[in-house]
């Protein structure tokens, strides 16, 4: 899973079952549905070479690389994941969940005791051995309220106690069965083991001086410019699906922070960077015909654009107003104008590829109908005044839309569509980090949002009332939604869980809490001098990469 807000299962014994219908735990009886393999990277030419530097452009800089202290931006998970590892991993070819930093694990018949045998011979980049106590200290830190682990606490919320009776044995005791836990434990950024010794040594500066057990180690951080990672020569335990079973081949990997999209593309053309992420569809078409670049692509595992409505805004607490806004948005027009048609209409917070997706939402979702939207606003008491602006009790219906440069066109289209109803929208565009912080504070009426994930537990993380002040940006406090989102977490039978999420999706439409707009195709452009990069469901993979110098 790779959760982001601007981007986890079989259980053994009586609970052996598919969680997601796409994922299977290795060794569990029963079958699973395979999904597409990781998309292969640029074709290789000759034997892999050692050395060189790969430079990647990111539009956002992490607030910190202390993953427990982060605001939850996907870039933090991606970059911290370069230095990390996890108890289990998701095989990119088969989607099986298999042991990684654990040699094995077992789950009690009631699903409430999980026992992992920790792999021996693994160390942090400073040589500190990894053991069961490391994971206990990491998980205890996440669960400690003093840590304020906004991005990670919900992923382990079901834990009652973590035990490490010896160096190789880790025991997780749960309050109740928790369906998403195993997939959550596979996230290399957010749930990687951290060295408490390193945290205590660095103190408040740990977020700028992290270390992990992964293939890369932090070399330097130039705020506002770049983060440079160096090869961890001690790393000799990559996941078995990699061809390269030793340390990574490049000397360095540089994350260069370029907020402006056009500047990013100019840097790609000039050779200043090697990899551009999230390239726009119109540009991807151009690079497909180039002999200097390779284009990798995949459909987003999540939703590329949806609008959230803040329940602190009085007008938006009226469900009829929220329904009117849903009907005002021409989703297909946005896909054509902003994505050149390289996307699909979203009808729910879940894409069709997710376990639990209810196809009925395609009919239940609000259809584009401006006349009906106007009638709903009229019936709700919002009448047009002499200037053509909606007004009620002396107040105009004026809303602020929180946005970012990346989705400027989409925001302008939304602004125009709502203007047709007599709703005045002011766009407040920010760089992604500031936007996320503003959303967490709830300082918006409407906000554009996107996410990457692979489990319907996203409903809990985004809309359960316990997440207000975290990822529940809209401050939704709905007892029925809380009950359903929590039920989905603790329901392990796949058919029963599917029914729960069907009800969640239908209820979300009934209440019109969000406006799902599109699922986009994601494009990555790579300079052909870099070989062997692959794309998994939620991130780029570099262990097989090398530089043709």
UniProtKB/TrEMBL annotation:
This protein's UniProt keywords: Signal, Transport
Q: Biological process GO terms, please?
A: peptide transport
Which CDD domains is this protein grouped with? PBP2_NikA_DppA_OppA_like_15
Among InterPro entries, the record links this protein to: Peptide/Ni-bd, SBP_5, SBP_5_dom
Q: Name one GO cellular component term.
A: periplasmic space
A Pfam family (short name) is SBP_bac_5
Q: Which domain of life is it from?
A: Bacteria
One Gene Ontology MF term: peptide transmembrane transporter activity
- Ranges for the Solute-binding protein family domain? 96-466
Family membership, please give it: Belongs to the bacterial solute-binding protein 5 family.
Write the protein's name. ABC transporter substrate-binding protein
- Protein's organism: Brevibacillus fluminis
Lineage here is: Bacteria, Bacillati, Bacillota, Bacilli, Bacillales
